[in-house]
Amino acid sequence: MLESDELDEIAEKDDLLGSDDKPKTSLFSSKPALRNRSTVFTLGKRYSTIENEIESTIIIPHASQKSDQKYLMENIFRSEQYALLDNASNELMFLSDFFMAKDNACIELFNSVFEITFNLLLKNSERQIKSTHDAIAIFLCINIIQRYEILAKKRQCFPMLAYFFKS
Fold first, then answer.
1. How many domains does the chain have?
2. The whole model's pTM is what?
3. 52: nearest Cα among 86, 21, 75
4. Which of 1, 26, 51, 58 is the most buried (most CB within 10 A)?
5. Bias category Acidic residues: which stretches (predicted)?
6. Residue 157 maps to a domain
7. Which domain covers residue 141, as residue numbers?
């Protein structure tokens, strides 16, 4: 999965804006390496994920592993959610046309096809959010979901709105 391609320079539980930067020394602890907290707590170019790259191509795991490229949590999240939205909107059109299903029948068919995928991605997102201390990444992921809700409405992929509401 893409989690192995995440960057190492992200906020951790010991990174607090008001905490003491002096290393704590004791008889049993070694001197910790101090990190530059200003890079961890700045938005910088991270906003481009939702500003310019919201509909850009998805991250291909084997290609990024070959090039040893690392990504921020919000880039990986955007890629997964965009792949889901893109495939779901195409699948909804297919189900509607192929099975000649309309309204509730089409939505039920769609939900039966995507139920396992939705549950897997929701559990994966929940696990990532619980394990991170990067508040900026979480904020950007929320903003990505809001933008994909608008895109789902534009594409008339209304069953995706229920998934995004759970996210």
1. 1
2. 0.81
3. 75
4. 58
5. 1-12
6. yes
7. 73-167
Q: Tens-digit pLDDT profile for the chain (167 aa)?
A: 566 666 656 677 666 555 555 655 555 555 455 455 556 667 888 888 888 889 999 999 888 888 888 899 999 999 999 999 999 999 999 999 999 999 999 999 999 999 999 999 999 999 999 999 888 999 999 999 999 999 999 999 999 999 999 88
* Tokens 């929701």 -> residue: 122
Cα 166 to chain centroid distance, Å, stands at 14
CA distance 126 to 147: 19
| Residue 6 belongs to some domain of the structure | no
The alpha-helical segments, DSSP class H, found in the chain are 37-40, 48-51, 61-66, 73-98, 103-131, 135-154, 159-166
51: left (phi over 0), alpha (psi -120 to 50) or beta: alpha
